[in-house]
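Customer escalation, tier 2.

The customer says the design service returned an amino acid string that "doesn't look like it belongs to this structure." They asked us to rerun it and document both sides in this ticket. The original structure tokens are below, unchanged.
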């Protein structure tokens, strides 16, 4: 986690006490939003707050064994692509760490377009006032703004489902958020929980690189494997289904829940080697030594493990918006607008990196639309 305290911040980097637009979040969605705010003539009328001490969004916190070539699509930011910034040889080099390359790219991007980024400043809360919003930072400093673009993503809200007995497990539990590499699992029995791309990639990495490790795999839904090529049609279908949920005020789901897992060469090889063959349906409870099934095909079965590795996704980091009371009866926020970036109950608020724009490719389109909506509101 990023410390709340401000560290070595000179006065020139501090945010202004007022601006027409406040962007919260310095990852892909936030940078895209800032770029398009400038494109639509709002240079000098916005500022962007990033809680991290350095550029890079969530990428700077990814596990060190994730390479740039192996990352699940690092999409270009608008106006300045990844290859243009880093060079083709580095982008396709299988040894370059994503946690260092992407932050370097984002830093170059911020400098190239002179984006108004202020860091590290963590937002504590946002509330309404007579003219717009008051955003309070962790040090108590208040910023007023007429409009708001929230782009805080999901990295700081790792999700672990509550399973009976979870507090009783005597072994180790960790989440994708906390993974640092396969070496620490040598000689261990590891149960990987989840059916997303991270679960599969890390299960394979541990199985291949942790000497003596035994891996097991479980999830609520049985994993499905599809084409390795994520076609535009499949992408549009996935986005449309997630968008339908947020327009109805339901919590967004992940893209992989719609598309299934891509059958990449690495995954195909792992299946052929039997690494992904030991999938089991989700257990019903956790014991001090492992997990147990009380119903279904595995009723009465138990599995003893040393580690439960939760790859169960993330939730949107929106706690700071709680004073605005945006959530509806369905548990989500009712979104509207052409790309579902506008909060229906308050069109002055744009959410990007939420719902259909949570993917890196969706964040760019959403950033443009959010900036367009904000520019139109301010011009009215």
């Amino acid at each position: 986690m990023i410390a709340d305290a401000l560290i070595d911040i000179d006065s020139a980097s501090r945010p202004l006490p007022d601006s027409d637009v406040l962007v919260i979040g310095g990852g892909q969605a936030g940078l895209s939003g800032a770029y398009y705010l400038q494109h639509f003539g709002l240079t000098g009328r916005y500022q962007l707050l990033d809680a991290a001490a350095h550029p890079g969004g969530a990428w700077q916190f990814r596990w060190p064994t994730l390479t740039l070539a192996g990352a699940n699509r690092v999409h270009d930011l608008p106006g300045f692509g990844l290859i243009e910034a880093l060079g083709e040889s580095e982008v396709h080099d299988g040894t370059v760490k994503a946690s260092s390359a992407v932050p370097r790219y984002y830093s170059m991007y911020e400098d190239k377009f002179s984006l108004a980024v202020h860091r590290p400043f963590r937002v504590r809360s946002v509330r309404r006032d007579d003219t717009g919003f008051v955003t309070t930072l962790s040090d108590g400093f208040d910023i007023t703004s007429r409009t708001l673009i929230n782009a805080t993503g999901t990295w700081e809200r790792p999700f672990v489902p509550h399973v009976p007995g979870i507090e009783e497990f005597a072994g180790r539990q960790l989440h994708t958020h906390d993974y640092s590499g396969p070496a620490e699992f040598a000689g261990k029995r590891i149960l990987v929980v989840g059916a997303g791309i991270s679960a599969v990639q890390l299960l394979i990495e541990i199985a291949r690189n942790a000497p003596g490790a035994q891996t097991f795999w479980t999830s609520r839904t049985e994993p499905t494997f599809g084409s390795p090529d994520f076609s535009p049609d499949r992408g549009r279908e996935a986005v449309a289904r997630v968008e339908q949920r947020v327009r109805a005020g339901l919590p967004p789901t992940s893209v992989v829940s719609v598309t299934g897992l891509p059958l990449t060469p690495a995954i195909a090889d792992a299946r052929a080697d039997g690494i992904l063959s030991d999938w089991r349906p989700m257990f019903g409870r956790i014991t001090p030594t492992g997990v147990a099934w009380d119903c279904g095909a595995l009723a009465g079965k138990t599995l003893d493990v040393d580690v439960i590795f939760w790859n169960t996704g993330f939730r949107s980091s929106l706690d700071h918006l709680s004073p605005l009371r945006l959530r509806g009866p369905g548990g989500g926020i009712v979104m509207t607008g052409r790309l579902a970036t506008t909060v229906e109950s308050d069109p002055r608020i744009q959410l990007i990196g939420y719902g259909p724009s949570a993917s890196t490719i969706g964040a760019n389109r959403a950033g443009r639309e959010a900036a367009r909506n904000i520019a139109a509101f301010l011009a009215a």
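Tier 2 assessment: The sequence is consistent with the input. The longest helix spans residues 360-379. The CA atoms of residues 42 and 165 lie 53 Å apart. Sent an explanation to the customer and offered a walkthrough call.
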